[in-house]
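Re: the request from the purification team.
They wanted to know what the chain is likely to look like in 3D before they choose a buffer screen. I agreed to run a prediction and write the result into the notebook, where they can find it.
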Amino acid sequence: MTTVQLPSSMHCRLWQVDLDATPAPQAVASLSEAEWERARRFVFKRDRNRFIAAHAALRETLSAQCGIPASMLEFALGPFGKPSLVEHGGLRFNLSHSQSLGLIAVCDDAEVGADVELLRPMPDAEALAETYFTAAERRALGALPAEARDRAFLCCWTRKEACLKATGMGLSVDTRSFEVGVAPDAREVKIDAADGVARLALSSFHDVQGALCAVARVLACGPAAAACRPLVDNEIYA
């Protein structure tokens, strides 16, 4: 497991995990029966082993952050399936993976979402963009040279996912209802939520070789929200 370096002003910590590496036996032993049951559902051994590695790494990471033994960590699921710690609820986390690459994000004081996608050809990018991107995002994608579109598509995709995962609402939110852009800029995003408007700080980074990553942190959630605006680096996750 490797720490992903972020500016010290970011109150969010990130770790990259090689899901094809053999996890420590004590980490594997810490998995709950529910996690083993989920692992057994995978048809292919490689997928099963990656699931085990990801969740073992998550338990080890959270244990180190909150001081509770990995095997004693208990999780609860939110209304849309986002997990949280039963104890030490102030520590928020998110897990993402793309094939053999895992990403763990931890935040002390606010909900966080992370997403990672390995760079790869996206022959269905245009069709997916029609379904999931806003009109402005589709126009921006179409204006790029053909050789730049796969990267831009995955950049936008990870940013959408990170925001949805941070709010905990998942695909109950129409991804065309909020704007994240196709460039890896830092910005504030607002999303209409059941209890008002969620405001998020969003940033993309490319420190993980061969992948695009995005992290979103909830700034506030309520009946009113400020207009979206670009954020400078030292404001993200401050």
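For the purification team: The domain at 121-235 is CATH 3.90.470 (Ribosomal Protein L22; Chain A).
Please add any questions underneath this entry.
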